[in-house]
Structure formats: C-alpha cells, structure tokens
Amino acid sequence: MVIDKSYSCIKLKLPNGKVVDLLSPFLEEISKWIQNSPEKPESGGYIVGYKHKRTGNISIEAASHPYSKDIRSRVRFNIRDSRHKMLLKKYEKEKSYYMGVWHTHPQEFPVPSLIDWDDWRKTIREDRTGCEYVFFVIVGTEEFRVWIGEFTTGMITEVFEYEKSQSGIYLSGELAE
C-alpha cells in the first residue's frame, strides 16, 4: 500500500471475510519513522487495536515508537524499552490490546528478511493478541505492507487493501463500527 500523507483510514480484507481498519493515528505514527535518508535507523514498535464484538471486524488504532533503550541500526530494530509495555497497559484500560508489531526497512517496497520470518513464526507460537491474528507491518520508503499470522494454522499471509473507486470510495467490504 502506498504511504498516503492524508492519514485516512485504510481497509484491509482478512481471509475470514472480515475487515481491518488501519486508523489514522496508527498510520500517522508509522509514517513518522520512514527511513527516507541514509542516516535514519530502523524503527518499530507494538501495534494496538481491538476486535469489534458485534461485527468481528478489527480496528488498528495506535502504535508504540522507538524509545531510548531500544536497539537501533540502519537494518535492525529490537524492542528493549519498557515504555512499549507501558503503552500496552494504558490501552488495555480502554479495551484495546496488543495486536502485533511494526518496523521500517530502508527499501521502497519492503520485503521481509529471514530474521523477520523467524521472528514472526516465533511470535505466532508465543504471543496472543486481542483477536485470532497477529499483525506484522513493514514500512518502506514508498509503500508499507501488512502480513497476518493465524494462531490456529500458524500460517503467515499478506493482506491487501479493498479496491477503491476513482473517487477513493471503497467498493466492497463491511463497515467497521
């Protein structure tokens, strides 16, 4: 998906037919950390959101960002700062939960590394989220991509945006409430 500076909601289609809304605060946060110059290190953090009880749709509403104790280089990011978990605790009080992780790559069109794939497989085995999926987002310099891990099958698949009309209106998909 192209990185859009308008920060409007983006709707993704899940394999179960449900919708994921990537809300503007989430999109704004991950866009701040794009590695669009050689001196910018990799960035990342946790993804926060919730599953709608009535519809089963999912909203991704926020993300943590790099803090001083995180490990960062041009091609590596490791969450080490306790403030990431503090953010999760804050959102849990508002009924929003850990939904996955995001990070940047210094590529126009990001491709998961072998380290990413290994980390994602480990995450599916060890973590739990506020829904049946765990989300993995990689932000490149021109586009970002989203993968989901399914806890029941252990499968990791890329998910895509619903089709839009020329005026920018989504052509299909349920509306999340």
Question: What can you see in these coordinates?
Answer:
Strands 1-2-4-3-7-8-9-10 form an eight-stranded mixed β-barrel. Strands 5-6 form a two-stranded antiparallel sheet. It is 18% helix and 32% strand. It is globular. With 177 residues, the chain is of the alpha+beta class. It has a single domain, classed as Cytidine Deaminase, domain 2 (3-Layer(aba) Sandwich), CATH 3.40.140. The chain contains three helices and ten strands; from the N terminus they run ββαββββαβαβββ.
Task: Supply database-style keywords.
177 residues, alpha+beta, Cytidine Deaminase, domain 2, eight-stranded mixed beta barrel, two-stranded antiparallel ribbon, 3 helices, 10 strands, 18% helix, globular
Describe what is shown at a glance.
With 177 residues, the protein is an alpha+beta fold. The protein is built from 3 helices and 10 strands, in the order E-E-H-E-E-E-E-H-E-H-E-E-E.
The CATH architecture is 3-Layer(aba) Sandwich
CATH topology: Cytidine Deaminase, domain 2
When the domains are counted, the total is: 1
Rg: 15 Å
- At the first level of CATH, the class is Alpha Beta
- Which structural class should the secondary elements be placed in? alpha+beta
| The CATH H-level homologous superfamily | Cytidine Deaminase, domain 2
Provide the succession of SSEs.
EEHEEEEHEHEEE
Oligomer: single chain
Sheet with most strands: 8 strands, mixed, barrel
Helix content bin: 10-25%
Please state the average pLDDT score. 93
Total helices: the number is: 3
Number of strands: 10
Unreliable spans are none
Determine the strand fraction and express it as a percent band. 25-35%
Cα distance spanning the termini:
23 Å
Shape by Cα distribution: globular
Cross-sheet strand order for the largest sheet: 1-2-4-3-7-8-9-10
